[in-house]
Design a protein that fits this description.
Two copies of one chain form a homodimer.
Chain A: H1 5-13, E1 27-29, E2 36-38, E3 44-54, H2 65-83, E4 86-96, H3 101-118, E5 121-129, E6 133-143, E7 158-162, H4 167-175, H5 183-194, H6 200-205, E8 212-215, H7 220-230, E9 234-238, H8 246-251, H9 254-263, E10 270-274, H10 279-286, E11 292-299, E12 304-308, E13 311-315
Helix pairs in contact in A: 2-3, 4-5, 4-9
Chain lengths: 325, 325
């Protein structure tokens, strides 16, 4: 039996107001009124992000709602991570073809499993009938003046990336049967696409260390060039240094792995610039959070250059544009 | 020629960061990074709202994008008004079938014309290709502890509504050729549907006066019952007192006008409860903002009662539910 809008909110969404077992005490008023009422601590700024995921565009029409909810929350957490912010509150705009309990239970479970460890409280939103589409708004907090921007880099800053890159693009190719992978490697690649890990702890650790940061959503080369351009710089990427997973290396030739790494999107790793004098601090602070790899540097000359086997040449980034041809 | 996502943001959305001629100085960082950075003044709480509008559900598929943008912003401003909050920042999640300049120019113009007088700065968002769908997130500010809730009413509080009710439902009937109206009256009714006026100044004036407030989006009777129930009360509505526009009165019989007023949604007027001892203050503060009308009272006995021509009887609210049958 289809549920009414208000029953749906009560049964599925109000329980997401808590984070694991606890409520956030900065939520004066949560779901159930015309708006939520929230408290920002003194000497902090708010960081706000919003991302929309549309069926058939950001996830396959037959994707598990558990992974859809994970991704919708993860891409926003990743944006907050890139700013160095601590996530606090979410609002969810959900357009649904029908109010099917089985679908909603998976969706809510996927949300809860990622929201709880990050202590993100759902404080409001809107549910309506329509084509499947999720818009997530997240707020985060930073001590005033400490948000990390894309624009703070300078020539000579070293470029780092977290984790491995290229897995998600390869995972999409596997899902779409454009690429064959052995079972274990294929599962790893698909999982990296469907369950990206936002680097929230690393992002917070980078405050005061990284001069600039961006998350890798449209492709490493495109996003790195975007960071460099915002910083008034160009950049060189050392292609031989790109961190590639064993699953990716075992599935495709090294040249193809590097294309996935440079041009594929959806990795949701952090790409950041660090002045050489702060590298020791970086290594100390990032230790134990996630592997980081130096993959190049910002330079005074605009544009993107790729270096491999001792040869450097100019390149186009080849990223992803939602309205491009 | 279709525009790329980033060109589209630069050309259409970055100009919405300003409010009329000015920038908000509480925006540390706006559109163009992974997130916006924003400042909340001391001794204030944030109020957050989010609404999703889907083509064919919240507006007709051939609706003017100018009115679509107006409504998407207005319904959120109305939610903030119901909490007594001053609007400050917006984020927009936009799913678009194509990036047509003519469509986008109308959309942006409709947004700007409502955002500018309310000094709402667009600080971020996301644009993607997909079925036409807008999700707007708005933040507002209230001095700490002063947000108006639905739940603060008490038996004996008088119920007021702003403006006139029923016009938007009649306007929808006119648009759908279910109702014939003379030209001028029809234009008025349709305009009230397509260009609702959020009662932001009234909402702010009601802080410290209204014990409870809600905006009329799903139907006056349903929303009034919701306010009463949240306040642990029932209510009586004096049907003869409902404020009806001349356009509505001249278009339908009085009985039909009252059905539109009680059951029709989309009026986006404020419905609020006021303790009898604060009525004089209410009249002084609301004077010059918008007409307000006393239409009933909260009572100790749960449920909705309608009173007309001296007779009172129990009633079902008959409001709108997005997933109801």
């Amino acid at each position: 039996m289809p549920l009414g809008e208000f029953e749906l909110i009560d049964r599925y969404f109000k329980p997401l107001a808590t984070c694991g077992d606890s409520r956030r005490d900065d939520v004066t008023l949560g779901i159930g009124d015309d708006g939520a009422v929230l408290q920002v601590p003194p000497h902090h700024e708010l960081v706000m992000v919003l991302d929309t995921l549309v069926s058939g565009r950001h996830f396959l029409p037959d994707a598990d709602p558990h992974s859809i909810a994970h991704r919708a929350l993860a891409v926003n957490l990743s944006d907050l991570a890139a700013m160095g912010a601590k996530p606090v509150w979410a609002l969810l705009g959900l357009s649904l073809p029908a109010s099917e309990p089985a679908f909603l239970e998976r969706l809510v479970a996927g949300w809860r499993e990622l929201a709880a460890p990050h202590r993100v409280a759902l404080v409001g939103g809107d549910t309506t009938r329509g084509p499947l589409c999720l818009t997530v708004h997240l707020s985060g907090l930073v001590p005033t003046g400490t948000a990390i921007r894309r624009s703070g880099g300078a020539p000579g800053d070293l470029l780092y990336v977290s984790g491995c890159v290229g897995d998600a693009a390869a995972g999409l190719a596997v899902l779409q049967s454009r690429l064959f992978a052995e079972r274990e490697a294929g599962e790893h690649l698909v999982r990296r696409l469907e369950y990206p890990t936002p680097r929230v702890a690393l992002g917070r650790a980078l405050r005061g260390i990284a001069s600039a940061c961006i998350d890798v959503s449209d492709g490493l080369a495109a996003d790195a060039l975007r960071l460099a351009a915002a910083s008034g710089c160009g950049l060189e990427i050392d292609v031989d240094a790109l961190p590639l997973s064993a699953a990716l290396r075992n599935t495709v030739a090294i040249e193809q792995a590097r294309v996935f790494a440079l041009q594929g999107g959806d990795d949701y790793e952090l790409l950041f610039a660090v002045p050489p004098g702060r590298v020791a601090t970086l290594n100390a602070e990032a230790a134990g959070l996630v592997d980081i790899t130096c993959i190049g540097r910002l330079e005074a000359v605009a544009g993107l250059r790729l270096r491999s086997a001792g040869v450097t040449q100019g390149a186009e980034p080849g990223g992803y544009d939602h309205f491009g041809s």
